[in-house]
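Q: Sequence in, structure out?
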Amino acid sequence: MKLATRLSLPEAIGLSLAVVSPTTAASFNITLIVAAVGQAAPLTFAIGAIAMTLIALSFLAFTHRVAHAGSAYAYIAHTFGTTAGFVAGWTLLLTYLGFTTGFGALIGSFLSAALKGFGIDIGRGWIAIGAASLLLGWWFTMRDMRLAGRLMLAIEALALLAIGVLCIAILRAVHPTVAQTLATFTPSADFNGWRGIGFGMVFTILCFGGFEGAATLGEETINPRRNIPIALFGSVLSSALCLIFVAYCEVIGFGASGVHELAKAEAPLNDLALRYVSPGMAIGLDIAAATSCFSAILGGMAAMSRVLFALGRAGMSAKLAEVHAVHGTPGPALGLTALAIVIPFLVWAPFSGAGEYYSYTGTIGILALILIYISVGVAEVVEAVREKRSWWPLACGLGPVVLVWVLYCSVYPIPESPNNLWPYVTIIWVLSSWAIIKLRPAVTHAALPEYF
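A: Exactly. Output:
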């Protein structure tokens, strides 16, 4: 039984934007980048945007060739064979797992901050909120993806509108000089210059990571070879413009003397709203960030379940390849997805705290995704050479080169504990795919032609 084909362009865009979640990046991830690069966060986002645009070119090319729920799994299999494709698909699962379980923690954190604005302190109640949000996300994604897709797009649009209002208020109040602006696009010697930029790029890729999510809807989208590329490239460009601007406004809002304060802020938009607008705006932004995280949960669960469905259909498990008789969604794959996301949240998040849990799981997820991006970029270079296109291999090859540099900067110098552990977690996950191949050898010769 096949997945229901009934999604249009808005739903595809909604999924990609939901997984990218520029609102979450603006509300929390920017602090991770500022901790690595200081005032140069806008520069880091600009470089990241260029790298992601180059990687997006490879995904765009493959979406014209392949419409498949497995996304990178099918792309890599198309070029390098099904064994390599399975390893890529298994690695991609770690990305969506890490992202989505982390978003559950942030929902609890942001709603807890909003309630504090009303004088209500729920303490560790954020854990219950996060767990409930993950289960509610499973309920939505189990149903018609048209509803989930439109909901994701609407939530993200409203949240970004609220952030835009705050950014304008900051600029009107500060009136930044040319010198202040140039400082935000110059590597800081206090933060290891270009090496710091390279390390900060890991978190920048985290902010853009997931733009390829719409590719997992390739079998459910009407006219996928037109709508999926538009959704992917549109998500990258819109997120790039948004995040460069918001990062600039946040750095300007805190000022040069407040860089370390911004790096440690748990809710920077909340702090800026209190400083430049009103407590009401701060509460509204916390709620907007929480709803955006819920949108990201919908997107992450939808993407992970589609990849799991594709791997199941390829021979990993016939049960995972089943489709819900009413909703046309991958029901068993969604159920396993929900379990895989909720269990680490309940086991790990209560002991690490919301922000740290998201940072840890997001870093693991993005390290896996960088490997996927490099692989897809290399695969497209191979395809372009085969098709004898002159300049295209060079354009698509630049993205993997930049990401190899980012990967190097993320592991050397060795980060402080526990961040030094996450590359090993990623490697162990990737290597575990070979154990599954031994148990389910059918995945090494799965046929994909009817989905091309």
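The two ends are 17 Å apart (CA to CA).
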